[in-house]
TrEMBL record:
The keyword ATP-binding applies. Keywords: ATP-binding, Nucleotide-binding. The keyword ATP-binding applies. Transmembrane segments: none annotated. Residues 368-378 have a biased composition (Basic and acidic residues). Residues 368-397 are annotated as: Disordered. This is AAA domain-containing protein. InterPro entries: P-loop_NTPase, ParA/MinD_ATPase, YlxH/NBP35. SUPFAM superfamilies: P-loop containing nucleoside triphosphate hydrolases.
Length: 397
């Protein structure tokens, strides 16, 4: 959702305000045909975007400097191929330009793209990170739980942790919680999972971290189907910046649904020959069987540096993939944290594993932000402001 203020000549004002009200995500903050008044009202209540009719700009050259300095984005509505209007839009540092001859179609998409959303809302879908391994006991749950906490700390955004070890899930005890509502309660009726039900099932387990616990008994796992997982992940990523999914080993339907849905599969490996062999087989399934792109799967080496006789460089070579993250052995700290139901990252934030998981979380946040910047560059390059003002084709980037 975002708010819009409309500054326009009277003849257009009514049509524009009605059109803004018809944009599903937009809220009209106000409108005026007096640019000075519009700026005053916007200073008092900052809009997500200010739409200015170029006719008002043409009459108010003295206000250009003021408009250029406002802290919210400005979009100009002007006649197409009007060189003077183009110059005015550039002078006031407009973020975008809507052409008068097709404003009814362009208004919604352009305002939605440019506007700053109302605080506390994420604009884009969150990133889904599935923590997987072909082996049990390699540290998946320890990593998933603490990574979720680290991501919330590093991003200051809401993070969901979903326990998809549907038979023997242990995320809840690891965060010291005995859940009243679990994944089973969401799926047992057979009806599609809706946002309201999911909200009731989520339990806050740390600052900005919300857990969806696994079923309590192994028999209940039978009712969990792949389509439920897709419904739940879709809803979770709409409301959380990151969704961390803990899994059990295996290519079950439920796991494969999560793998397909994931943006990133963090595949956990430990430096021993037996684990390496099965992780190698798992990677083959991802690449050759499912045809996932190389960068969808990232290898996490847990207990790295342990003196097992298997060197990190050899592991990367055997797996024919770089190791994205290395997490050290941390003695008894992880076990103590799990026994006490108080996550490592909160209880022993300075332990070697906590530090490594936090820096992994920070790196993932940086990478995610970089990706979304690239995405928006790509879309805006299609039709840059300059290109549309001048009618020229944009340069390829
Ligand atoms: N880097 C580490 N250093 C020390 N102990 C660890 C480390 N990673 C995991 N552990 C311990 O190993 C055991 C298995 O971890 P867990 O996260 O339950 O694995 P998984 O979910 O893959 O079965 C737990 O007792 C956990 O505390
Ligand atoms: Mg586990």
């Amino acid at each position: 959702m975002f708010t819009v203020y409309v500054a326009s000549r009277d003849e257009l004002r009514n049509a524009l305000t009605v059109a803004v009200k018809n944009i599903p995500e937009a809220i009209l903050n106000g409108s005026s045909s007096d640019l000075r008044q519009a700026l005053e009202e916007c200073a008092a209540e900052v809009p997500g975007v200010l739409l200015i009719d170029d006719a008002l700009l043409a009459q108010n050259i003295g206000l250009f400097e003021k408009v250029a300095e406002v802290p919210y984005p400005v979009v100009v509505l002007a006649a197409p191929a009007d060189a003077q209007a183009a110059r005015r839009a550039l002078t006031i540092r407009a973020k975008d330009f809507i052409s008068l001859d097709r404003w009814a179609e362009d208004l919604g998409p352009i305002l939605s793209r440019v506007a700053v959303p109302i605080q506390g809302e994420t604009r884009e879908d969150g990133r889904v990170l599935v923590v997987f391994s072909s082996k049990g006991g390699v540290g998946k749950t320890t990593i998933a739980v603490n990574l979720a906490i680290g991501l919330a700390k590093a991003s200051h955004q809401p993070v969901a942790i979903m326990d998809l070890d549907i038979q023997f899930g242990d995320v809840a005890p690891m965060v010291g919680d005995a859940p009243l509502v679990t994944l089973y309660d969401l799926v047992k009726s057979g009806a599609p999972v809706d946002a309201e039900m999911l909200k009731r099932a989520l339990k806050r387990v740390a600052n900005n971290v919300y857990m969806l616990a696994a079923p309590e008994n192994p028999e209940e796992a039978d009712d969990v189907r792949a389509e439920h997982i897709v419904q739940i992940l879709q809803l979770l990523r709409e409301t959380h910046a990151y969704v961390v999914v803990d899994t059990a080993p295996g290519y079950t339907d439920v796991n494969v649904a999560a793998f397909d849905f994931a943006d990133t599969i963090l595949t956990v490996c430990t430096p021993d020959v037996v684990t390496l062999r099965t992780v190698g087989q798992a990677l083959q399934v991802f690449y050759d069987g499912f045809h996932y792109p190389k960068d969808k799967v990232q290898i996490v080496l847990n207990r790295s540096g342990s003196r097992t006789g298997v060197e990190t460089a050899d592991i990367a070579q055997v797996l024919q993939s770089p190791i994205a993250y290395q997490l050290p052995s941390d003695g008894a700290f992880p076990v103590r944290a799990a026994n006490e139901g108080h996550p490592l990252l909160l209880q022993f934030p300075d332990s070697a594993l906590s530090r490594a998981i936090y820096s992994m979380a920070s790196e993932l946040v940086r990478e995610t932000q970089g990706r979304s910047r690239q995405e928006s560059k790509k879309t805006s390059a299609k039709r840059t402001l300059f290109a549309r003002l001048t009618g020229r084709k944009p340069k390829e980037v």
